[in-house]
Amino acid sequence: MDFIGFMDRVWKVTARTRQREYQLKKPSGEMRSGFLRKVYSILFVQVVLTAVTSAVFMYFESVRNFVHESPALLLISAFGSLGTIIALTIYRHQYPVNLYLLLGFTLLEAVTVGITVTFYEVSVVIQAFVLTAAVFFGLTVFTFQSKRDFSKLGAGLFTGLLVLILAGFLRFFLHSEALELAISAGGALLFCGFIIFDTHLLMHKLSPEEHILASINLYLDILNLFLHLLRLLEAVNRK
């Protein structure tokens, strides 16, 4: 499921190039607090929709069998996500189109993740979910309390994301458990860094108008962290 990592790069690169255009000089504390509430409310809904969809795919045998017998469904959800995320870069400030696109994108990503988890043991999926929630909460609290400037991490993180995507393609040609373990562990660490980076941008850099951008940033970070932890746990359990 390196497609979600690719999606993350497409979105972040586009958003990064347009960030200065919408950044305010110094939003008030009240405005920033309202912005944070809006972003995390949207993010909560996105995560709940994804978790519920994944649970339906995992626990209902008829749905699971349909998914396994319909490989085209993954392609539809993947390319549909790509289309909606491109549209969101253009229309993310146009209400209510931005909300419809955000809902469509979230549902398509939820289907992609739901398909993925059907190929893993339920216990492994639950472990990955709990770990992801704990790590995200811990990193969020750390970033909120820290006075460091984490925006300097951007160049290194984007380079690491490109390397990770290239390594993902390499995995199709070199079937190695060691490579799988390295990619999974490296990917999990990379998206821990992105959670810190994007949370810092949310707190200090982004305009209060950018609630769509901020929520998708964190949503994709969470999905990628979850999927890499899922593969990491699976690789460890095989040994």
From TrEMBL:
The chain crosses the membrane at residues 39-60, 72-91, 98-120, 126-144, 156-175, 181-200. GO terms for biological process: negative regulation of apoptotic process. Keywords: Membrane, Transmembrane, Transmembrane helix. It is found in: Membrane. InterPro entries: Bax_inhibitor_1-related. Belongs to the BI1 family. This is Transmembrane BAX inhibitor motif containing 4. It comes from Leptobrachium leishanense (Leishan spiny toad). The gene is TMBIM4.
